[in-house]
Every structure is written in structure tokens, then in C-alpha cells.
Amino acid sequence: MSKTSPSKKELPSDEIIVSQTQAWIKKVIIGCNFCPFAQREVQRGSIRYLVVHSEDIDVCMEAMFAECGRLDEDESIETTLVIFPGAFNAFKDYLLLIENCEDMLLDNDYEGIYQVASFHQDYQFADAPADDPANYTNRSLYPMLHLLRESSLDNALANYPDPENIPQRNIEYAHKLGLRQMKLLRDSCWNA
Known about the structure:
4-stranded mixed beta sheet, 7 helices, 11% strand
């Protein structure tokens, strides 16, 4: 039997949460080449990991907004993963968080500067059934938001052949591996 997301009472330390997330990035995101740009940032050590222990959406939004300021001030940080263990476990609640964060970027003149990508343990694309292996391209161990520099993303995409085919290639690869293998791969990261 595979391990599922821990309950709030049994959450591991922040160090373990970050280590598990790093294992997920290496094994799933880089290992399956779901993001062809992630390996460079892992090697450079330019990813910041922030663990937020709050279930209050306003506190979580403030943490995201503070990360925008941090990225403004520190160009050595390419991207931030804001991890919310023990919060937003219901996917619909998580979708509200994403919507609020995107509104926050717009309201604070960060649209076009930063972009939010989303990862959740129960991630489900709008047009996909829950058991579609492609959902695992965005199924992380914990709810998290990925704050990206839009200019860096634009530069990476400009130098990558056929970037518009990345989502379709990811779907096809996840389908090729199958649901069982995608789940095993992700769940292996709990032991990091």
C-alpha cells in the first residue's frame, strides 16, 4: 500500500518537506522531463523553497506577496516554490487560492512579471478524469504554488524547439507510463 499525504498532526519537519519536494522535482518533473527547464535551476541552486504553516488564505496570500518582493530584490533566486503542508487539501479550496494569487499579482502590478504555476496532490485538469495519468504532471506531494519570473520563462521558451508541444508531449509520456507507474514514481518521493 502506498503512502498518502500526511495529516496535519503527523507533518514532518520543514527540512523533510523540502527534501521530499526536491526528490519529487528530480524524480518526476526532471526525470520525466515534464519541465525541460527545471534541471538547470536545480543545478544552479536557484530555487527557493518556502514552507508555510497556515490554513488561513490571507496569511498564505501574504506569504506569496512577500515572495514577489524577495524575487524583486534578489536576482539569484530564479523561482520560488511555496509549499502549504496541511492546508488546501481539498482541491476546490486550492483552486480558490490560485485564483486569489493571480488576482493579487494583477492588483499589485505583477502581471507580466511573475506567473503562478500550480501543483497539488489531487491535481486534476478540467477536461480529464481523476484517474488520468496526465494529472500526475502536476500532482505533487503537497499543495504548492510555483512563482516564476515571466521574463525567464519567455527566454527559455524562445530558445526551446516547439515549446507549444510541451503539454501534449507530457500528456503522451504520462499515458505511456500509465497511472500505476506515475503514482509509484510520485509516491517514492515520500521516503526522501
